C-alpha cells in the first residue's frame, strides 16, 4: 500500500477526544503519516504531545489561527465536529517561540487570514489579522521552518474582500526581503482562483487540497494546471469529509480519496500521486520518513 502524508489532520481537536489513539492507529496501519496543525495555544501543546507519543508518524505544527483573534461562536457542519467558541487571543512571541523551536514541531500553522462573515470584521480587526500573520511568519523565518497557511475570503466592514490577494501581497513581501532563510510554505485547503494559484506557485509555495475536491469541481482546473511536484493532500479532519463519508467526522485515513481525485483529474496513477505528494511533504517539512 503506498504511503501518504495527511498534511493537515487535527487529531488533537476535541472531536477526537475519546478516540484519538484509535484514529491515529488506523492511519498508521493504512500507511498514512499525520501533520497535526493547531489553532491556539492549547491545541498547539496537545499537537506536540501527540508528536512525542507517535514519533516518526505524527508531526506537530503550532500557531494561532486568525479566527481565534476575535470572539465568536462557530458551528461546523453537522456530523463533523462539535461547535466551539473563540475568545479574542493575542499573539505573543515570547509564549510561542519555545513551541516553534520544539524539535517535534515541523511548521508554523495554521497562520493566515480569515474573513468569514461570522466574524463581522472591521478594517481594524483585519489589520490585527495581518499583523499577527506577519509576526507568525517572522517567527517561522527565525526558526527556519515553513508555514501552513490558512486563507478564506469573505466580508470586511460590510464589503467583500479577497483574502488570497492580501496573503499573496504579505508573502511576496517576505520572499523578496527575507534573509538568510526564505519563506516557504503551503496554502492549505486551497480556495483561491487559478490566477492566484499561479502566483503562489511562482513564489515557490505548494497547494494542498481537502475532501472539498471530491464534491466540488471549482478547483479542477487549478489541479490540472499545477505541477504534481507542488501538490499536497490533506483531510483537514474532523472537517471537510470527502465522498463517500459525507455527513460523518473526517479522519486522516481518508486522505487517499483526495490523492485518488487528483490522480483522476491529472490522468496519473494513484501510486504516482501518492509517492510524489509524500515526497513533496517530506521535502517541505523535512519529515524523517
Ligand atoms: Zn485546519
UniProtKB/TrEMBL annotation:
Gene3D superfamilies registered for this protein in UniProt: Metal-dependent hydrolases
One GO cellular component term: cytosol
Binding site for a divalent metal cation 1: 8, 10, 110, 236
This protein's UniProt keywords: Hydrolase, Metal-binding
Name of the protein in question: Hydrolase TatD
SUPFAM superfamilies named in the record: Metallo-dependent hydrolases
GO MF, one annotated term: metal ion binding
A Pfam family recorded for this sequence: TatD_DNase
Organism: Candidatus Terrybacteria bacterium RIFCSPHIGHO2_01_FULL_48_17
InterPro entries: Metal_Hydrolase, TatD-like, TatD/YcfH-like
Annotated binding of a divalent metal cation 2, by residue: 150, 188
